[in-house]
Amino acid sequence: MDKPVTPKNEKPSSGSSQAYDTRPDYDRSPDEFRAANPDNEFVGASGVLFEQAMAQTRMAICLSDPHAPDMPIVFANRAFRELTGYDQEEIVGRNCRFLQGPDTDPDEVAKIRRALETEDVTVVELLNYRKNGETFWNALHIGPIYNQQGELIYFFGSQWDVSDVRAARAEELYAKEMARELSHRMKNMFAVISGIVNITGRMRGIEEEAREINHRVQALGRAYETTLDEASSGDIEIGNAIRAILDPYDLGTGRLKLQGNGLKVPFNVVSGVGVTLHELAANAEKHGAWSTDDGTVKVAWQAEGPDERDLVVTWLENGGPDASQPSSDAGSGNAIIDRLIRHAEGTITREWKPEGLEVTIRFVAK
């Protein structure tokens, strides 16, 4: 076997030479630390394991000496140096607070101080500063290290840059706050629309027609309200909207059966689904399955079409009056549905059967 070659300008590590330390990019800080601290517990096979782990891990790690004044850092691996931008000689011998700055949260720093005083394990997120002044959010995990006699010898610290995670959280929080504000404004808008419809209906003597219009407005409001939290992502879980639209017609009686999973569809289908299902439900109450005591309605939904982006909803009535012929009173509701579906470039089929109405609607994703 060929003898391992030591890179130029580097001295062999203390102890036996290892093949893994011959690579030019090998991190020599672990074996330098072990050579400078011969009395610690990282000896023999465990010392080799320590060197390998610290040299190869991508996690930023440092060790601090709890017995020296101001608890200085005595070891920092390459990942720590790359994360912070400092060289080895600028790190070792300093307390880790040198990474803090004017915007570092003192409450998080206090948590670290308490953990060190009580020899506890803790994880905090705090704003730290690189050598060049750039800030980053550091998920800092610290904890004590003991020798075989149970004596504290080091404090261990691992650092993880979670700036991207924090940014994603902030964006998600902002989206939720905007959704709540939008929900509040939409409720007010629907309330104003309902008020206008009611006043107009009374003034013109068409209160029954006004109530029908208001029911449609309310169905739209329920559909949108359940989907606003997801709207910023572009897709929404349609099952939540369907339940919100139809639950008021069932009221826990068990006469409504829903079958669907967590299917997500484009947000633009919400209005069509809301009005269509409301019209079908209203018709079922007046003329269909829900006009009897034992009638039931089953609503199922699934994805179809290119990339499974189209939404297909099936409406199945059972146990109501003979539905071989459509009711003449259902014409206006059917006309509204047909116009909505046509405008959305979707399709609808109806089958009038003795056991009940069957409807299949395809909402096309855009």
Automatic annotation (TrEMBL):
Q: Which NCBIfam families is this protein grouped with? A: PRK13559.1, sensory_box
Q: Where is this region: Disordered?
A: 1-38
Cited InterPro entries: HATPase_C_sf, PAC, PAS, PAS-assoc_C, PAS-like_dom_sf, Sig_transdc_His_kinase_HWE
According to the entry, every stretch annotated as the PAC domain falls at 122-174
In terms of PANTHER family, this protein maps to:
PROTEIN TWIN LOV 1
Cite the entry's keywords alphabetically: ATP-binding, Chromophore, Flavoprotein, FMN, Kinase, Nucleotide-binding, Phosphoprotein, Photoreceptor protein, Receptor, Sensory transduction, Transferase
Transmembrane domains' residue ranges: none
Q: Which domain of life is it from?
A: Bacteria
Record-listed E.C. numbers:
2.7.13.3
Protein name in the entry: histidine kinase
Identify the enzyme class. Answer: transferase
For whether the record's keyword set contains Nucleotide-binding, the answer is yes
Compositionally biased, Basic and acidic residues: which spans?
Answer: 1-11, 22-34
SUPFAM superfamilies (UniProt xref): PYP-like sensor domain (PAS domain)
Among SMART domains, the record links this protein to: HWE_HK (SM00911), PAC (SM00086), PAS (SM00091)
Q: Report the residue ranges that make up the PAS domain in this protein.
A: 73-119
Q: Which reaction does it catalyse?
A: ATP + protein L-histidine = ADP + protein N-phospho-L-histidine
